[in-house]
Design goal:
Layout: H1 3-13, H2 15-23, E1 36-40, E2 43-46, E3 51-52, H3 54-58, H4 63-66, E4 70-76, E5 81-86, H5 87-103, E6 111-115, H6 120-132, E7 135-138, H7 145-155, E8 159-163, E9 165-168, E10 171-174, H8 176-185, E11 192-196, E12 210-212, H9 213-219, E13 230-231, E14 237-241, E15 249-253, H10 256-268, E16 277-280, H11 287-299, E17 303-308, H12 318-325, E18 328-333, H13 335-342, H14 347-350, E19 359-363, H15 369-379, E20 383-386, E21 397-398, E22 415-416, E23 422-425, E24 440-445, E25 455-456, H16 460-467, E26 476-485, E27 491-496, E28 500-503, E29 506-509, H17 510-518, E30 523-533, E31 537-546, H18 555-572, E32 581-585, H19 598-605, H20 619-629
Parallel strand pairs: 4-17, 6-7, 6-8, 7-14, 8-11, 11-12, 16-17, 16-18, 18-19, 19-20, 31-32
Antiparallel strand pairs: 1-2, 3-13, 4-5, 9-10, 14-15, 15-25, 21-22, 23-24, 24-26, 26-27, 28-29, 30-31
Helix pairs in contact: 1-2, 5-6, 5-9, 7-8, 10-11, 13-15, 19-20
The protein binds adenosine-5'-monophosphate-propyl ester.
Adenosine-5'-monophosphate-propyl ester (PRX) binds at residues 241, 287-288, 363-367, 385-390, 413, 479, 481, 493, 496, 502, 507.
Amino acid sequence: MTRYADFHRRSIEDRDGFWAEQAALIDWQVPFDQVCDYSNPPFARWFPGGRTNLCHNAVDRHLKDRAAQNALIFVSTETNQERVYSFAELHAEVQRMAASLQALGVKQGDRVLIYMPMIPEAAFAMLACTRIGAIHSVVFGGFASVSLASRIDDAEPTVIVSADAGSRGGKVVAYKPLLDEAISLAAHKPAKVLMVNRGLVPFTPVAGRDEDYAALREQHRHTEVPCTWVDSTHPSYTLYTSGTTGKPKGVQRDTGGYAVALAASMKHIFCGNAGETYFSTSDIGWVVGHSYIIYGPLIAGMATIMYEGLPIRPDAAIWWSLVEKYKVTVMFSAPTAVRVLKKQDPAALKKHDLSSLRALFLAGEPLDEPTAKWIAEALGKPIIDNYWQTETGWPILTICNGVEQAPSKFGSPGKAVYGYNVQLLDESTGEALTEPNQKGVVAIEGPLPPGCMQTVWRDDERFVKTYWSSVPGKMVYSTFDWGIKDEDGYFFILGRTDDVINVAGHRLGTREIEESISSHPAVAEVAVVGVADTLKGQVAVAFAVLKDPSLAATEADAKALEASVMKVVDEQLGAVARPARVRFVSVLPKTRSGKLLRRAIQAVCEGRDPGDLTTMEDPAALQQVKDLVGG
Ligand code: PRX
């Protein structure tokens, strides 16, 4: 047995012994009584009885040895700012933010919604929340008012932290009007909005509700806010993600299990050491940003780069110049970003000294072989694919080079990570597939390891129904991804089993987009599918039936209507969810019982065989789709 196989086996067979050892990687104020309480499956309670604090582990703990070392490196190529915070400075800023939140009435267990661009204050706000036991809920800044409103109503925040604007590709994106609109749409009204004014767009504060952060920060310049020790199982945050239904799910994470899982992953997967620099190009609005811009690197005592801007602006060398300047040892990005860089001159990478960099980790969507080969060659460094989900918070499949160096295989994120008992299940029977190279649903036997979701925020029933009930008679966690495993234990991910799509590494629910398009006054009915795209991995394509078909009678009419449908999606959900095309048909392909045949539409759009169509109501409907996409 290889060292890794043994390590993995022990994590499953001697679960408590294994995780008790990993738990020593973090500080506990009160030691835990038990490693894992799985007396009420599928709800796992990690390290019950223990008391700790995420912010303490990310910040305060390092003051003794590395107060003056870099902690947070903020680089914005949008506003041309660069600012480095040492651990001591980060500690001071987090306390100012924590004191400001407390002054606005935030208490332990309260939710704080963070709707912000990639600026240091967003990191301070997250850390300030976990410092005082408040539960943060970061909403990606690319989401617009309707998306934001549904998250406000679900999280019911006491305070929202926001900013006047973000900036993308040199264009200012005002956040404040979207936030105001979202609050007016939401049934829940936050008591206060804490505004960071970057001076990018003028705005009028709402009297009695909006507070200026600069003023509060000044008042609390010297206020000390000690960490609130919380139970290991205390929720640290919720993060909304898309699923099959239109309503986003609040993935709820604990405190102790998450801190341990991240600390262990920094050691065994990312091989990052204290005093080094980590650069993740994600956004704090996504799970990668939570785990590997903010908490993971800081818990490991590493400096973390927070980058606001595009990968190719001012030029395609920008990321590599940061690697050189800050001696980045570990980098994390998404295949989409690499595909963007691939279109640029590869000389950009060679201009800089990349000798500090040990590996580039990629995740969030399938890593295609040409992209993997191109970047491996261009960088001359190991490229490590890793597969996971918002729900798990850290990798399910990868190569754990910190345990044992192992080769990668093109197209495979690697093997099951320690702590995860990964199975492939037969779709119809739910039986575990034991032979290699059989296609099945990727599933995880409970308990999920530390760091994974505890439940769906305020909806235990939905947690059980959504994730643990897809196999009759068996309680097992479904990832909703298809996969196969080869004879060496390497998995290959083949795409989602549900209606979730992945556009440029952003996870979106097609149902959410359909709901938004349906609100357009001209639209009677719509189907949205994900279609393969060489740059973005997938793009959303919509097929809509109009209430009055004559509205799209001419090509010019159809174009104008398409643009107005896209505008609705932009305004409600955000440009991130905008379909690449909106096509008009007179009828949608459905089964005789009225179910939309999204898979058949998707297959036709991708030039594949749509499969068995015997249950289809009207074959002419699919022909229309074919004619439109030129199939
Ligand atoms: O379909 C899988 C795909 O992205 C989904 C999870 O997206 P999200 O919740 O945004 O979490 C991203 C965390 C990195 C998965 O269900 N996915 C993620 N990583 C990979 C992947 N597909 C193939 N290969 C990957 N490495």
